Amino acid sequence: MTRLAGRALRLTVLVGESDTWHHRPLYSEIVHRAHAAGLAGASVFRGIEGFGGSSLVHTARLLSLSEDLPVAVLIVDTEDRIRAFLPQLDELVTEGLVILDDCEVVRYTGRDGSGAVERE
């Protein structure tokens, strides 16, 4: 498991749920590339409402059947590793928003092969 503590960089990629890369959801492609790059972890969060550069509001409300809700992919790792990953995003994200934030990792734990949480 990757060790991560202290200063880090949070990468947030905001795209649409219907955005694709070679017939695959774009958010999924970003997560799989982050995994292949050995980054510490990635999570995808589906938004319930939002708008971006197009100024078109997308919502999950019942009366509005949006098929392109906002999706946020969050990745946290060291600054060097995140910045090394950015060229891949240049290739993938043609519409959306990419944000970098300084952050501090207070706790980063995973599970061992048995499903039990690793303890230090």
Automatic annotation (TrEMBL):
Tree of life domain: Bacteria
Protein name per its UniProtKB record: DUF190 domain-containing protein
Source organism (scientific name): Streptomyces solicathayae
Annotated InterPro entries: N-reg_PII-like_a/b (IPR011322), N-reg_PII/ATP_PRibTrfase_C (IPR015867), UPF0166 (IPR003793)
Family stated for the protein in its record: Belongs to the UPF0166 family.
